Amino acid sequence: MTRPRAAVTGGAGFLGSHLCERLLNDGYDVLCIDNFLTGRPANVASLVGRDGFRLLKADVTDFVHVPGHLDAVLHFASPASPIDYLQLPIETLKVGSLGTLHTLGLAKEKQARYLLASTSETYGDPQVHPQPETYWGHVNPIGPRGVYDEAKRFAEALTMAYRRYHGVDTAIVRIFNTHGPRMRPDDGRAVPTFIRQALAGQPITVTGDGTQTRSIQYVDDLVEGVVRLLHSDHPGPINIGNPHEVSMLQLAKVVADLVGSGSGVEFLPRPEDDPMVRQPDVALARAVLGWHATVDLEAGLRHTVSWFRSLSDLTD
Ligand code: NAD
């Protein structure tokens, strides 16, 4: 019997590498497609050489050709941290538009299930709290963050158009902030920044007055939600996130306590259009996927802290 085969774009990135590993463990052959823009081969080094794993260096904004059958196309390629997408605005818009077009075309050609990695950033600076999938969002299209938020909103619209007009079996997951091993210490997101600073005994830099909130989940929970959505026939969008909401100041304190550092807090200006609150409504994921986050805040952060401790160079 032929084994199921999945293509994962952005597979050498933080989330993509965990997803490739999980799919391989589940018996899939996995084709990891990545141009190493923000990811790196080291993230999948332990998978190279494993039966059924193939790494292809390619840019999905160019034409994507894959010989052989595919049962699933998971489009995870995109710069994802604010530092990355603010430095790579055109690449971000291209991978959300052209990259989504090409990967949808691939799924159509192969009659594969297509899964788009979208984001809670489609909700922008929300005026509804917590955010259900039915909320249309509050995004500034012309602000600096618009390059990411609007690329993902366009990608969702294109995915739905391929579903409606080409009959492609599509799914959209709206991912809320996720952390875990293989994040880059310098990617600028709150969790790696706080951990790096705490491990170095430096002050933890919190923007604004630190009352803005985030809901962060551990990567294993996210991957479980994605795999359940892949195996369902639900089109989404479906929120996958941990509803436990914390302020940035609370997060800084939890990280400092876990690391055991005496780091104080240094306040910096808030970035433009930074959302004030963020919390997923996960009723839909519970109802249709039987999914809910199982790793609590401190347990997840303990894993991520220990991975950061194992890195020889935290400026990596
Ligand atoms: P990441 O930067 O670690 O991974 C993205 C990967 O995509 C990298 O390996 C990069 O090299 C690759 N890539 C970028 N442009 C490409 C192109 N044109 N062709 C081929 N490969 C390309 O980021 P991540 O945190 O793993 O995010 C993965 C996906 O999940 C992204 O689509 C992101 O928008 C989404 N997401 C992530 C989070 C999160 O908290 N990590 C939250 C919401 C959504």
In words, what does this structure look like?
By secondary structure, this protein is α/β, with parallel strands linked by helices. It has a domain at 5-179 and 218-243 and 278-294: Rossmann fold. Helices cover 37% and strands 17% of the residues. The protein has nine helices and 13 strands. It has helices at residues 14-25, 82-87, 89-110, 146-166, 190-199, 219-231, 248-259, 283-289, 297-310; strands spanning 5-9, 29-34, 53-57, 72-75, 113-119, 170-175, 178-179, 204-207, 213-215, 217-218, 238-240, 245-247, 265-268. The strands form four sheets. A seven-stranded parallel β-sheet has the order 3-2-1-4-5-6-11, sandwiched between helices. The chain has a two-stranded parallel sheet with strand order 7-10. Helix 5 packs parallel to helix 7 and helix 7 packs across helix 9 (297-310). The N and C termini lie far apart (43 Å). Nicotinamide-adenine-dinucleotide is lined by residues 9-10, 12-16, 33-39, 59-61, 76-80, 84, 95, 99, 117, 119, 175, 177-178. Nicotinamide-adenine-dinucleotide binds at residues 9-10, 12-16, 33-39, 59-61, 76-80, 84, 95, 99, 117, 119, 175, 177-178.
Write the layout of secondary structure elements.
Blueprint: E1 5-9, H1 14-25, E2 29-34, E3 53-57, E4 72-75, H2 82-87, H3 89-110, E5 113-119, H4 146-166, E6 170-175, E7 178-179, H5 190-199, E8 204-207, E9 213-215, E10 217-218, H6 219-231, E11 238-240, E12 245-247, H7 248-259, E13 265-268, H8 283-289, H9 297-310
Parallel strand pairs: 1-2, 1-4, 2-3, 4-5, 5-6, 6-11, 7-10, 8-13
Antiparallel strand pairs: 9-12
Helix pairs in contact: 1-6, 3-4, 5-7, 5-9, 7-9
This protein binds nicotinamide-adenine-dinucleotide.
